[in-house]
Design goal:
The structure holds 2 protein chains of 2 kinds. By secondary structure, chain A is mainly alpha-helical. Chain A has 2 domains: 22-132 and 244-264, no CATH class; 147-227, no CATH class. Chain A is built from 11 helices and no strands. Chain A has helices at residues 2-5, 16-19, 22-38, 42-58, 63-71, 74-87, 105-131, 134-149, 155-188, 196-227, 246-264. Chain A is globular and about 70 Å long. Chain B is α/β, with parallel strands linked by helices. Chain B folds into 3 domains: 2-236, Rossmann fold, CATH 3.40.50; 243-287 and 552-583, no CATH class; 305-534, Rossmann fold (3-Layer(aba) Sandwich), CATH 3.40.50.300. In chain B, helix 3 (99-109) packs across helix 4 (114-127), helix 14 (402-412) crosses helix 15 (417-430) and helix 17 (448-460) packs parallel to helix 18. The longest helix of chain B has 16 residues, at 173-188. The chains are: A mainly alpha, B alpha/beta. The interface between A and B is large, with 54 and 75 residues.
Chain lengths: 265, 597
């Protein structure tokens, strides 16, 4: 469990990307994500992928490391593309075939687009996680959610839920581990086979105590938050440590222009 | 600063009507006071604290902070900023993902401008000595550090009153000392402090003590008056501090002895003129038997549990690898009680988990009756029936119903319904829970002490020969502590169970342990009998542990040239020793108490 939690970690070191405000990084991430999702043809996706790779390079992420994350999913990507081509996904009537036989150009184009999308989104997510420590991400989400409050949306409450989720994930994982061990010490790990059903049977007794535990923890947390004046003031002030510089504005404007351009294309 | 007038409060109960928590409490907290609030579990301390900053609203009567009624929603921002609270569980009151973000949480809720928030965060973290940790993740800090962050979070509200609800209960002695020193400094700078505590030694450091019993104020006055009156304390289910108890007992024997002594210094001052000083006695040289020793464990194959060169590394091969145990050798003989002492993070829990067969050693072996428990061929069912383990705060892991919880183990063993019932009955009785009365109760409705005994019964139901206990008395009130200590003693002496206990409580060690090992940074740094270890308070302090009050007293007397034995464990022994010293001055010889057992 713990091993899993540390795989997605920020890389040490500094880079031009990391000097950007985390809000800029988050918005840029969202913009490029939109391009990948909304692209109808390979060209915008190719361009967005090029930008993403350039950003990965700017972030000084070792190329081998970045490719490593792609390599592990490469067989799956190949399989998806093969299935798409096999079933002729994305075919249109009147679309010319590549040769006299075989899949039409439209099918190939669509398979390529799918590949580009997956690659792009993978690299993009990696880029965000590798360059942005979770506390920065949390601050960016909180800060970006605040203006939405003025529209009457419960945006900052939702952001707060996210913050607390992130904060307590390791705690809950440790708690679950402790619970599992305590039950194992009472014979929870004996009897039954190694099959799916017996594994489920062994997991079930963890559910009730974990549930009670989480509820009580939530109650105590709510109390501690209330005691620190959460929810009594008119408006909360912004998170600390966020500095929007001119460079951020330039980068954001550039990315925004790129996104709009790609969407029109 | 805070006025409470005729306060009543009741919680909705479970079927049998509401449970009255406070019944007509009237109090005034004046600005700049240091008040300790004491009382047995369920006496209403926490409920009262929750009223001080409007977390709860009075059912009847009123609470005013700076003249503002806490029932008034408009006054809440002012009240919450004026009266800040710190709770028992450090990990449950830290909201954000870094230390600095967490301390900023309160000021941000008040809507303060960014530079003001920043200034407050810095000042608060510097006050508690955590500024250099500001970028760290709270869950990677020790409990003592987390609690200091929680206090910083409260201080950043710039409160004039700080309420601490058993905020030291989960800390090790070093963590406690740190928090108490911090509170005294804040108080000297003008902060009003209300400290809720089970530790009478902490209450003794306040200017005023308020005792609650069954929702009413049972005492309100200077600590000395309450704490030096053991009979009165016992009436409200509290235990006197050890030294006050000792002083009271001496006063009963010696008419010329003052009866209201509370602190170590006072006791030393009072005893010093009464006890003779033989010229031949040299305090700098403790008796040979009390020198801490580090013998190699005798490799006795008859021992029940045998740990050989055990090392454990968490997350090996990652940048997060941490070594928790290094080359630990330990043996536990059949029928013995071994205590494992050591500050938080020294590896006590990790060691216990290895003994229970729950954590595979990185290096080394754990042998049970000569057989490696991590061998592939070891029968896990047999192991679970031989070695039981009670985890820290086990009451958090209970099922809904007492009987079901205790039956979990026997059912996993695949016993028939009759056998399960028999096991559950035996285990519950052994844990001091009458079977008929408790088997169908909900675990939620029980007191903390009862819940812990249910968890203990759940482990006993497997009938283990060896019982591993991780902090079995932590967070319990004095009464529950005494009950549990008695229970463990009986399990060992009458039921013949072998116990291995990890603990911070020197009282527990003094009461049950035959042998002690001290862990520090994953290594065993000291071994011996409790007497041998307690005879060297300086060394214990060096390991972040607090020597028991009685041995501190003996140590001070020795330093003054009084031939007090260094290895006294209990108040009873101390009384006998001091009487002996005073009445037989002609025998200028080092005198030692006869060994226990």
């Amino acid at each position: 469990m713990l091993d899993y939690l540390i795989t997605a970690q920020t890389l040490p070191g500094s880079s031009p990307i990391r000097r950007l405000d985390p809000r800029t990084r988050l918005l840029g991430f969202a913009g490029l994500l939109v391009v990948f999702v909304a692209a109808r043809r390979p060209l915008p996706a190719v361009l967005a992928l090029t930008v993403t790779i350039a950003l990965v390079a700017l972030a000084r992420v070792p190329l081998r490391f970045a490719l490593g994350s792609v390599r592990s999913v490469a067989p799956w990507l190949a399989l998806i593309a093969a299935v798409q081509v096999g079933f002729g996904v994305g075919d249109r009537p009147g679309c010319p075939p590549l040769w006299s036989w075989g899949p039409s150009l439209c099918v190939l184009e669509f398979a390529l687009l799918t590949l580009l999308r997956f690659l792009g989104i993978l690299l993009l997510m990696g880029l965000l996680v590798w360059t942005t420590p979770i506390p920065d991400l949390v601050r960016a989400i909180e800060a970006l959610a605040m203006p939405l409050d003025r529209l009457g949306l419960p945006a900052h409450q939702v952001a707060m839920v996210g913050v607390i989720g992130v904060r307590f994930l390791p705690t809950m994982a440790l708690e679950l581990e402790r619970l599992r061990k305590a039950q194992a010490a009472r014979g929870g790990d004996i009897g039954g086979g190694t099959g799916f059903l017996s594994r489920v049977r062994r997991t079930l007794p963890l559910v009730v105590p974990l549930f009670i535990l989480s509820l009580r923890r939530a109650e105590r947390l709510a109390e501690a938050m209330e005691a620190r004046a959460y929810g009594v003031g008119e408006r909360r002030s912004h998170p600390l440590g966020l500095h929007f510089r001119p460079l951020d504005a330039v980068v954001l404007a550039g990315l925004a222009a790129f996104v709009v351009g790609m969407l029109i294309l | 600063m805070i006025e409470i007038r005729d306060l009543y409060y009741a919680y909705p109960g479970d079927g049998s009507g509401p449970v009255e928590a406070l019944r007509g409490v009237s109090l005034t907290l004046r600005r700049g006071e240091f008040v300790a609030l004491v009382g047995a579990n369920g006496s209403g301390k926490t409920t009262l604290a929750r009223h001080l900053n409007g977390l709860l609203s009075p059912a009847r009567g009123e609470v005013r902070v700076d003249g503002l009624d806490t029932r008034c929603r408009e006054s809440l921002p002012h009240i919450r900023a004026a009266v800040a609270m710190v709770f028992q569980r450090p990990e449950d009151q830290i909201v954000a993902t870094t230390v600095a973000d967490d301390v900023a949480f309160g000021p941000r809720n008040l809507g303060l401008p960014a530079d003001e928030v920043e200034a407050r965060v810095r000042q608060a973290l510097e006050t508690v000595g955590m500024w250099q940790h500001r970028h760290r993740s709270p869950h990677l800090l020790s409990a003592g550090q987390q609690q200091r962050v929680a206090i910083a979070g409260a201080l950043a509200m710039r409160p004039r009153c700080l309420v601490l609800d058993e905020a030291t209960a989960m800390l090790d002695p070093a963590g406690r000392r740190g928090v108490m020193a911090l509170l005294k400094r804040l108080h000297s700078e003008g902060m009003t402090i209300l400290l809720i505590t089970h530790e009478m030694e902490e209450a003794a450091q306040a200017e005023r003590v308020i005792a609650l019993a069954e929702g009413e104020v049972a005492f309100d006055g200077p600590p000395r008056e309450l704490l030096t009156d053991p009979a009165r304390l016992r009436r409200i289910r509290l235990a006197p501090p050890l030294l006050a108890d000792l002083a009271a007992r001496l006063a009963r024997r010696w008419p010329d002895f003052p009866r209201d002594l509370l602190t170590l210094d006072e006791l030393v001052d009072a005893l010093q003129p009464l006890l003779p000083r033989p010229p031949a006695f040299s305090p700098s040289c403790p008796p040979a038997s009390s020198l801490p020793r580090f013998p190699n464990p005798t490799l006795d194959t008859s021992s029940l549990l045998h740990v050989r060169h055990l090392s454990h590394t968490y997350l090996p091969g990652t940048p997060f690898a941490t070594s928790a145990l290094e080359g630990v050798d330990l043996e536990v003989r059949d029928g013995e009680v071994v205590a494992i002492l050591g500050p938080t993070g020294s590896g006590k829990s990790t060691l216990l988990e290895h003994l229970a067969g729950l954590l595979r050693p990185t290096e080394g072996k754990v042998l049970l009756s000569g057989r490696d428990i991590y061998d592939r061929h070891t029968d896990r069912r047999a192991l679970r029936q031989q070695v039981g383990m009670l985890f820290q705060r086990p009451e958090e892991q209970l099922f809904e119903n007492v009987g079901d919880d205790v039956a979990f183990g026997p059912r996993r063993l695949g016993l028939g319904p009759e056998m399960v019932r028999e096991r559950v009955r035996w285990a519950m009785e052994a844990a001091g829970l009458p079977f008929a009365e408790y088997k169908d109760r909900f675990t939620q409705g029980l007191s903390g002490g009862e819940q812990r005994r249910v968890a203990l019964a759940g482990v006993l139901a497997l009938r283990p020969r060896v019982l591993l206990l991780d902090e079995p008395t932590a967070g319990m009130d004095p009464q529950a502590c005494q009950d549990l200590t008695g229970l463990l003693r009986r399990l060992n002496r009458e039921e013949g169970r072998t116990l291995v206990v990890a603990t911070h409580s020197m009282d527990l060690v003094a009461a049950v342990a035959d042998r002690v090992v001290v862990l520090n940074d994953g290594r065993i740094v000291g071994r011996g009998t409790p007497r041998q270890l307690f005879a060297d308070p300086e060394r214990l302090r060096g390991w972040g542990l607090e020597p028991p009050a009685v041995s501190q007293l003996m140590h001070r007397l020795r330093a003054m040239g009084i031939p007090a034995p260094a290895d006294v464990l209990t108040v009873e022994e101390a009384v006998a020793v001091l009487e002996d010293l005073r009445e037989k001055p002609q025998r200028h010889r080092e005198r030692r108490v006869s060994q226990r057992k």
